[in-house]
Amino acid sequence: MPVLTLKSLKKMILFKKTADLHRWLDQQKASGKAIGFVPTMGALHEGHISLINISKTTCPFTVCSIFVNPTQFNDPKDFQKYPITLEKDIILLEKAGTDVLFLPEVAEMYPDGTNNLEKYDLGRLETILEGKFRPGHFQGVCQVMRRLLQLVQPDDLFMGSKDYQQCMVVQRLIQLMSWPIHLHRCPIVREPDGLAMSSRNLRLSPDERQRATAIYRALKDLPNAQKILTDAQFKIDYIETADAETLEPSPPKKGAVALIAAFQGEIRLIDNMILA
Ligand code: AMP
Fold it and tell me: What is the reported pTM?
């Protein structure tokens, strides 16, 4: 693929340095216009772009970041193999009308390195579901989100409810820091066959990709979820139903959330659904 030069960017501005982004943000904020922010790890798909679209209908300026945050990967292999499709991402973001893309290096986000970073009090959220199966993951999410949010200081933050517990963790971070940021939890975008869009889907083999639809079928047929998943060769981390506001365990009932995490081959997929 040809290298995308800055000249190929028509309207979107690309910043790699925090100081440059900071300067641009200061100018926009002086005009009093609200900033919407969509943080991502790249390998973008329609799910990510839906967040950009929602931000654009809410805020005059939309900033997106692409940063594969090393501190949130509890499995080093998952970090090394995380898909990168930067040229395609830039084209998608520009087409969607994103105003700014922030594309920092690790040293820009963590100038003092990634060892001995600060810790956050996430309470019970850190011991259940994703917190239980991915130790340290949510500390990493908070470490990068604190840095990104402190820099961008958005009025509105747009995140996907596909990462249901992550939204709750980031809401908690916003409360801990007393920031006046409105977190919008946006709907899950799915493939036509129901599979929730995810950057990790790119790593599925064609057979695994076909079997992966079992997660959606399992969410819609909870009494048979375990069988549906094992028949499709999934290795299950959890199938749980919980209160949609608190994530306290709950029987499967209207308004509760059902959450699944399971491995298809090497790839760990998560999904959830509010029960009708
Ligand atoms: P990621 O790049 O995986 O860190 O995701 C960046 C943001 O996109 C997060 O807020 C995700 O929850 C959101 N996201 C990922 N997949 C989807 C999807 N299928 N539908 C809606 N939002 C999504």
Answer: 0.96
**Per-residue confidence band for 8, with pLDDT thresholds at 50, 70 and 90:** low
Reading the block at residue 253, the tokens are 């009932």
CA of residue 202 relative to chain centroid, distance: 16
C-beta 165 within 6 A of ligand 1: no
> Distance (Å, rounded) from C-alpha 187 to C-alpha 203?
23
Residue with tokens 């920031």: 179
Tell the residue nearest (CA) to atom 12 of ligand 1.
Answer: 160
Query: Which among 229, 230, 216 has a CA at the least distance from the CA of 258?
Result: 216
Q: How far apart are CA 78 and CA 267, in angstroms?
A: 8
- How would DSSP label each residue in 166-218? HHHHHHHHHHHHT---EEEEEPPPB-TTSPBP-GGGGGS-HHHHHHTTHHHHH
CATH of 199-269, one of 3.40.50.10420, 3.30.1300.10, 2.60.40.10, 3.40.50.970: 3.30.1300.10
CATH 3.40.50.150 fits 6-186, yes or no: no
Does residue 272's CB lie within 6 angstroms of at least one atom of ligand 1?
no
pLDDT range class, residue 10, cuts 50, 70, 90: confident
140 CB less than 6 Å from ligand 1? no
Helix (H) or strand (E) holding 49: helix 46-58
Sequence ranges of the domains in the chain = 6-186, 199-269
